[in-house]
Known about the structure:
This protein is an all-beta fold.
Amino acid sequence: DTEMFSIDEGIIYYVIDETPYTDGELTEGMTPVYTVYKMKVDGTEKSMVTGASPGPFNVYKGWIYYQDRVDGMIYRVKTDGTGKEMIRDNSLLNLMIIGDWIYFYDNQQP
């Protein structure tokens, strides 16, 4: 199932839930698996970008910015899947990019 998507310069980036389920429940001993894929808007040239368990994400200037579903940290990876970098080392909520700024809610601050 497609979880979320973003379109940038004629490319659709989307997250697929590839978690192994048994009877609609997470298979015992398994962790959720989410993968970012991309394709042209006409449906051609599909490929995997990263299997980094992304949650909310934004595509901006050749980078995918996302919150990891496992550790809650903010990362970025190039749209070709290379160059993964952690850009915030504590758990955050509601990642959004507007212009050259990244906005988020730091849920560890009082």
